[in-house]
């Protein structure tokens, strides 16, 4: 009977093969959580997810190892980055998707990361990152709260473990080959590397507080040498007929993509942190750089001798804030130092604590049904560190309705060039970005003197 059933399948129909699975280990699961914590969690958009996974399927089928499984996560971060874990988990940020101009550029990034997995670079990088973990000791004795350690780790992990120049060039070579065999335009890599470099220059030019450490250029050095190398390799694959850029499909998928920081998760503007959804703001002291992550806002003073953490904790309504501070969640709290206070009309409590190398000033503040915690750490207590803690906590206040309404996310909008439109006139329609004309060119892959053509589809940033 079984024989007749198999014979009934027409010879031309290939049965779909099950996709190879990605093997999970406790280490990769932990790493996955760290990456999500550092990069704002996942960005859920079914159209984009479908485009990315179809692209990966095509690349896998064209690679030398079609049995290697991959799983891609889109990260809710405006940083331009992509990376891979040794087991085939790939990550791309929405910032990277906003910068790419077509599917062949996206395929060049994904195939580059696949190449790191296939060449076992990702495994070597993981060993290097374990050594980098020593750097996180500064924050570990801040409390016995494992989140703090994990956050510090997540940051050094992703910033310090960069690939060597040789590994990068090797991954570019393999990646361009896989893209070309999958019938994508092999020049996508050179175009995207150039866009990345121009984007990094724009960012460095504005000398932003946002550390470039979060970007692809720090974990994957982008150099003219890499662009040159990618072009040379692409020439070996005389574009087969139908080598696709697939620009229309790509632009349709990224239309309305959130651009830059996502205010719904709270965001940093200079030294100020605002959370429109929860309705509050506060300001960090001078010379502090703030970093918003999924679990906490971390602030570090230049030189690293002072740090702060701001987060939310669950405290039962019937428990007093003073009792909470003394409840043992943090070691070394000096009970005699605990006092109940009011901050801008909100009930609060403060206490001091001592660790081996750090001294802490801790505040808990009740805002609506939530309790927020400020932890200030200093290597040496001084009038300045005391003042920094006090001023930061005293700056905590409700956002006004106007401030909440003004904090909408910026988005990528795809529009059609009309007669009379120019780079200059279109860039004037961009909202909330610096250097609008240059940013418009970078986002649309236009060279410094190139002009737009009528009926072209282009990206602008709008609110």
TrEMBL record:
Keyword vocabulary terms for this entry: Hydrolase, Metal-binding, Metalloprotease, Protease, Zinc
Root EC class: hydrolase
The enzyme's E.C. designation: 3.4.24.-
PANTHER family the record matches: METALLOENDOPEPTIDASE OMA1, METALLOENDOPEPTIDASE OMA1, MITOCHONDRIAL
InterPro entries xref list: Mito/Outer_Membr_Metalloprot (IPR051156), Peptidase_M48 (IPR001915)
Stretches with biased composition (Polar residues): 215-227
Location of the region described as Disordered in the Swiss-Prot/TrEMBL record: 204-227
Cofactor(s) required, per the database record: Zn(2+)
Domain of life (superkingdom): Bacteria
Domain Peptidase M48: 52-232
GO molecular function, a single term: metallopeptidase activity
Name of the protein in its database record: M48 family metalloprotease
């Amino acid at each position: 009977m079984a024989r007749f059933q198999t014979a009934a399948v027409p010879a031309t129909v290939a049965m779909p093969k099950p996709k190879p699975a990605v093997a999970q280990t406790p280490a990769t699961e932990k790493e996955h959580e760290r990456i999500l914590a550092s990069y704002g969690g996942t960005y859920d958009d079914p159209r984009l997810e479908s485009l990315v996974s179809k692209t990966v399927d095509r690349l896998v089928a064209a690679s030398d190892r079609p049995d290697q499984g991959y799983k891609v996560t889109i990260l809710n971060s405006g940083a331009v980055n992509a990376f891979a874990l040794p087991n085939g988990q790939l990550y791309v940020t929405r910032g990277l998707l906003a910068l790419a101009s077509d599917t062949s550029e996206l395929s060049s990034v994904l195939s580059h990361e696949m190449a790191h997995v296939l060449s076992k670079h990702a495994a070597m990088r993981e060993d290097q990152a374990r050594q980098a973990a020593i750097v996180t000791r500064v924050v570990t004795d801040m409390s016995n709260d494992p989140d703090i350690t994990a956050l510090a780790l997540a940051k050094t992990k992703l910033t310090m473990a960069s690939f060597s120049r040789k590994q990068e060039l090797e991954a570019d070579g393999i990646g361009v080959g896989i893209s070309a065999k999958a019938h994508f335009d092999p020049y996508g890599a050179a175009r995207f590397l150039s866009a990345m470099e121009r984007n990094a220059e724009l960012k460095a030019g504005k000398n932003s507080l946002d550390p470039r450490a979060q970007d692809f250029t720090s974990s994957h050095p982008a150099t003219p040498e890499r662009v040159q190398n990618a072009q040379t390799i692409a020439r070996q694959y005389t574009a087969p007929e139908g080598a696709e850029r697939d620009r229309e499909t790509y632009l349709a998928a990224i239309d309305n993509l959130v651009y830059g920081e996502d205010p719904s998760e709270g965001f940093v503007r200079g030294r100020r942190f605002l959370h429109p959804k929860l309705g509050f703001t506060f300001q960090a002291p001078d010379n502090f750089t703030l970093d918003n992550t999924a679990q906490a806002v971390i602030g570090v003073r230049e030189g690293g001798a002072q740090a702060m953490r701001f987060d939310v904790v669950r405290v039962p309504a019937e428990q007093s804030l003073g009792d909470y501070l003394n409840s043992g969640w943090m070691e070394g709290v000096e009970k005699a130092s605990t006092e109940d206070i009011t901050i801008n009309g909100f009930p609060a409590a403060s206490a001091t604590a001592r660790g081996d190398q750090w001294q802490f000033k801790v505040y808990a503040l009740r805002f609506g049904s939530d309790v927020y915690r400020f932890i200030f750490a200093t290597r040496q207590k001084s009038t300045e560190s005391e003042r920094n803690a006090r001023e930061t906590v005293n700056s905590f206040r409700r956002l006004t309705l106007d401030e909440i309404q003004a904090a909408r996310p910026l988005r990528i909008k795809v529009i059609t060039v009309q007669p009379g439109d120019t780079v200059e006139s279109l860039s004037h329609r961009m909202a909330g970005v610096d250097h609008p004309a240059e940013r418009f060119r970078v986002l649309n892959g236009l060279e410094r003197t190139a002009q737009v053509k009528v009926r072209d589809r282009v990206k602008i940033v709008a609110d």
